[in-house]
């Protein structure tokens, strides 16, 4: 019986680990699987744990208000040692590029525990964007023993850095989570009605055009967020019939400019972070999505929704190459122009609004568990 420890800390890691957790649970005779949350996020993590019905075995409860990279890095390393000593896992599973993934991999290495990296090999090529995630992911890649790359391109990135063994292309588990979420929405009429009722007060989803907005990247704090908010303000004023729905990330560096610049504009709706089924329902009803989120860039193409990526570079290039996503940067005029052109040019809109699945087919967790069983 192998002991597997899944470690995660933030909303997107939890979403992407959830289907994998339940896949491992199907093989109780092979694996003793435990979950450790650093709780780098608290409320936003708990929303996901709750929806996917995951009860952590270890909860480090680390989040502090407006925490720094230094706090979260040092606190998690110190606390994780105790968890490893208690459980003695054979393999630690980490996901993505957060500080939690980096410190979990590093501290597992200090204990000579094998590390499996889910969503390995994405690269923007710019060490300050996404910051600090680009370097976190590179470092985890060089620490890890097993690499689960979502796409061929990610595998190639690893190959180029000399990581050539134990690399498998399995798709991204975010699509497993998305398909699972969509299935629940389809089957659970009560939940669907609750969600429709909630949004009914905001927009008429049969008729009105909405733009979904999310944003939280550290490299955009300050001037970048001011630009993004001023762009949204101008778009809202130019198109009063349009509704902009923005579930605002809990990071105070995001909330301050967003609330200051956008509060009180009548066709902009600033919401608290949405529970996952609410968010995917809203994505499916959106006209287009403006975001800097990694996960949303991956989910939106499966739903046929155009994504304007408010970043200067992205490590998710597959959507851009397929033409369903476009990098618009964080300058006000460029964001406004890109939105205008999708609203006013129908053929351009339809070129982008195509359902494709460059990031996965919903079977990534199955593949990962099969491979780990065979190792
Ligand atoms: C983190 C990850 C980022 C990921 C993002 C997903 C790092 C360095 N950053 O960024 O890669 O894309 O999560 O959302 O690992 N907060 C709350 N409640 C919550 C969550 C956050 O109040 O549930 C506030 C707290 O004040 C916290 C702050 O947000 O200190 C920042 O959280 P942190 O995890 O450090 O950074 P994110 O910007 O969320
Ligand atoms: N998400 C959510 N509620 C929200 C905003 C996002 O459930 O209000 C989901 C989204 O569907 C995606 C993930 O959270 O799966 C993305 O998280 P985030 O943008 O915080 O982080 P990133 O993916 O950029 O690391």
From TrEMBL:
<dbReference type="InterPro" id="IPR029767">
    <property type="entry name" value="WecB-like"/>
</dbReference>
<feature type="domain" description="UDP-N-acetylglucosamine 2-epimerase">
    <location>
        <begin position="28"/>
        <end position="373"/>
    </location>
</feature>
<dbReference type="InterPro" id="IPR003331">
    <property type="entry name" value="UDP_GlcNAc_Epimerase_2_dom"/>
</dbReference>
<keyword id="KW-0413">Isomerase</keyword>
<dbReference type="GO" id="GO:0005829">
    <property type="term" value="C:cytosol"/>
</dbReference>
<protein>
    <recommendedName>
        <fullName>UDP-N-acetylglucosamine 2-epimerase (non-hydrolyzing)</fullName>
        <ecNumber>5.1.3.14</ecNumber>
    </recommendedName>
</protein>
<dbReference type="Pfam" id="PF02350">
    <property type="entry name" value="Epimerase_2"/>
</dbReference>
<comment type="similarity">
    <text>Belongs to the UDP-N-acetylglucosamine 2-epimerase family.</text>
</comment>
<dbReference type="GO" id="GO:0008761">
    <property type="term" value="F:UDP-N-acetylglucosamine 2-epimerase activity"/>
</dbReference>
<dbReference type="GO" id="GO:0000271">
    <property type="term" value="P:polysaccharide biosynthetic process"/>
</dbReference>
